[in-house]
Amino acid sequence: MSVTAVIPAYNEEETIGEVVSKVKAHKLVNNVIVISDGSEDNTAAIARDTGAEVIELESNLGKGAAIQTGIDIAKGDIILFLDADLLRLTLEHIDQLLLPVINQEAEMTVGVFTAGRFTTDLAQKITPFLSGQRAVKSKLLDDIASLEMTQFGVEIALTQYAKENNIKIKEVELQDLTHVMKEEKLGVFKGLRARLKMYWEIIKNLPRNKIK
Ligand SMILES: O=c1ccn([C@@H]2O[C@H](COP(=O)(O)OP(=O)(O)O)[C@@H](O)[C@H]2O)c(=O)[nH]1
Ligand SMILES: O=C(O)[C@@H](COP(=O)(O)O)O[C@H]1O[C@H](CO)[C@@H](O)[C@H](O)[C@H]1O
Predict the structure, then answer these.
(1) Is residue 65 within 8 Å of residue 31, measured between CB atoms?
(2) Element (H, E) at 65
(3) 94 with 78: CB under 8 angstroms?
(4) What angle do CA 199, 204, 207 make, to 5 degrees?
């Protein structure tokens, strides 16, 4: 089975290189696509230099649009979704996401941070269905309504679609994995503002895609 990694990235120059290198080094991953979502920093150049195929969106359209762009161009049997701001990603984490789908144990995996940083572990324990770390059989996404407008509601939409279509989901625990929090990227004030905006984008997607 061939695997394409899809990595949405908005201003992630600090972490994109490490994430792309790790994914490129995984023997089961055939293609790595980074969707630079209107980044104003060196995200696209670093991703390209590290060996990813890079699609640059002209402006910042939101995570849902970046993911949809990746889905539209990804070839192969399985799509591996990873965030660009991961810290301490290992080849084992990628195995954990991919193998249950390759071995037909599940049709979609959702990776949940554990035994890493208290704050990011806690957030994912409370809302595992928001995780951006997933693997899914690509053909199962053929009929999904466009994710383009979902922004940070994209994971809610994916999870809800899986539930409605009896797609078998397996949660896998990704030890020690964490990401750079918004407050760390942007500072406390702008970070909190971005967090509130994210919650609003998630809430906006709830009525249409209510979690059962
Ligand atoms: O407008 C956006 C916002 C975020 N992202 C990407 O989506 C992923 C998750 O976003 P973020 O890091 O802000 O959220 P967190 O992981 O902190 O919840 C990251 O790879 C971001 O670069 C994106 O492509 N477009
Ligand atoms: O863990 C969370 O509560 C949020 C926000 O993380 P941070 O504010 O950056 O620590 O991140 C998750 O939810 C987002 C929206 O669904 C996803 O896009 C991220 O992939 C996921 O990590």
Answers:
(1) no
(2) helix 63-73
(3) no
(4) 125
Average model confidence (pLDDT) for the chain? 95
Position 211 pLDDT exceeds 60: no
Please report the domains of the chain, with CATH numbers, ordered by start residue: 3-208 (3.90.550.10)
Q: Would the pTM of this model clear 0.90, i.e. be above it?
A: yes
d(CA 203, CA 42): 31
Residue type, 111: G
For residues 16 and 87, is the Cβ–Cβ distance under 8 A? no
Q: Encode burial over 86-106: b for 16+ CB neighbours within 10 A, e otherwise.
A: bbbbeeebbebbbebbbeeeb
Which residue is closest in CA terms to ligand 1's atom 6?
9
Residue of 19, 35, 85 with the most ligand 1 atoms within 8 Å of its CB, for mutation: 85
Q: Per-residue pLDDT for 200 more than 70?
A: yes
C-alpha distances out from residue 186 to 55, 154, 163, Å:
24, 22, 34
pLDDT at 186 over 70: yes
The burial class, CB within 10 Å (0-12 / 13-18 / 19+), for 16 is buried
ipTM for the assembly:
0.94
Q: Are 120 and 181 in contact (CB under 8 A)?
A: yes
Q: Whose CA is nearest to atom 7 of ligand 2?
A: 181
**Which residue type is seen at 195?**
R
